[in-house]
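ESCALATION

Customer reports they have been waiting on this structure for their group meeting. Please prioritize. Original submission:
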Amino acid sequence: MTNQSGSERAGAVGQKSESFFNAFFRVTELDLRTTAMLTALIAIWVALYFLTDGLFLSPRNLTNLAVQGAVVGIMATGMVLVIVARHIDLSVGSLVGFTGMFVAWLHVDFFPSILPGILPLDSDLGWILAVIMTLLMGVVIGLWHGFWVAYRGVPAFVVTLGGLLGFRAMAWVVSDGRTISPLNDHFELIGGGANGSIGEFWSWIVGIVAVAIIILITARTRKRRRKYGIATKPLVVEIIMIAVYSAVIFGFVMIMNSYMRPRSDIPRGIPVPVLILIATVIIMTFISQRTKFGRYVYAMGGNPEATELAGINVKRTTTGIFVIMGVLASVAGIVTAARLQSAGNLMGFMQELFVIAAAVIGGTALAGGVGTIFGAILGAAVVFSIINGMVLMQTTSAQQQIALGLVLIFAVWFDVAYTKRKR
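Update from on-call: job pushed to the front of the queue and completed.
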């Protein structure tokens, strides 16, 4: 009798704990998968802090980590839509190399040779036109991939594998196998070099604007829910969440401002590549959550046959996905060339694996239909945190790849287990 009563009491405690757990996520409307990934990222940072004697969380290292991860983060936002739609893009690393080489070749070799008096190397108009033409090249590449996948039925794996091989070779052809440098000084600011940051004042302005936008969105969402009779979060919960988001944003700004410019006491502020990543995340989140195109992509991933029977133009949507991916790869190529201050043939080498890993680790299901932009950014943060931390620990490249592979396998296992339990 005593043992039975004890087990009943234990069961009751378990039920209360589970009820509180479920109630927390229901009230806050937080995604369990994203929350788990964020918790894992924090645990990784804490572990690396102690393993590197505090060096990992230093302002200098976190700034470098943000700049290095920006390129993969930019492409990971597009890879989410590709994988959600049950496709894959293996060419993004080669596209970074090709588009980075293309933008450098245009404003260093091509324009100064045909228009030496109008568009010399030190002309701002030259590199601006080069950037525009490189983005248009990304559109053309996306249309090329989308045509073969959507209208000719060739699997995306095969089409983009051909792109992986072909565009790497095209980068070699454009440059004749040489490294193109030097680049325009103003163009190099895009890469977040010594002067490629916005400074302390404007960094605080960005932080304040971000918090103001969060408050406005929260208030607008609450008002619309009340208007249509949809349950709203408790006001206290929303205030707490705004306070947490604000603390994270202002903490990020403080860290970026804690890293000084070389040989000075002037704060660098938020690097330009990080601003480009933030803008990309905002745009891609809007596309995926607030547009018909985004809803069509998720519908395709959930049930392609039903989506087509519902009258959605699957071919056009598929082409649009690859166009977006091509543009984002071009942006990544531009940022990479500017960061390296030159364009070499090994730019973007193997980055397709990091991009896919970031999307999958961030919760994008390889079976399609599931994935978030924010999750992909968390995935990219996990990938580069592990690599960066192990570099600081002076581990070998092989050990870094092994650790990253194990994390990838664990992330996919967690996704499969979570999906089964949810069903």
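Sent to customer with the following note: DSSP finds 16 helices and no strands in the chain.
Escalation resolved.
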